[in-house]
From TrEMBL:
UniProt keyword annotations, A-Z: Aminopeptidase, Hydrolase, Protease
The encoding gene: Npepps_1
Species of the source: Buphagus erythrorhynchus
Protein name: PSA aminopeptidase
The keyword Repressor belongs to this UniProt entry's keyword annotation: no
Molecular function GO terms recorded: metalloaminopeptidase activity; peptide binding; zinc ion binding
Amino acid sequence: LPQARAGIISTVEVLKVMEAFVNEPNYTVWSDLSCNLGILGTLLSHTDFYEDIQAFVRDVFSPIGERLGWDPKPGEGHLDALLRGLVLGKLGKAGHKATLEEARRRFKEHVEGKHVLSADLRSPVYVTVLKHGDSSTLDTMLKV
């Protein structure tokens, strides 16, 4: 994206390159993609292209989100937990339906005391339910 911001290459070309990383398992790569897509989302937030970039985020992040899932797997390392939080947060903010539904379910269970959210899932769950919630969600969050 820095090359696109400098006018060296088009944003479309950068997005095509980003799609090539869909099977990448490395946290650092996904962190960089997330950051750059966040910048692009901010730049497009008040344009007709905002929903298009959110759809792109959902398309790019969905495969890694499905592979990681919501719960840790035996033998996972610290970077896997960080990657899970990053990916689920990005999907939730982008309005990924399955992520939104699961975040709402986990938030409800957490608030009702049925299940404690793990530390690595609190941020993506809270951000997702707040972004797509209402004043009641905000009131509930303020009591947590």
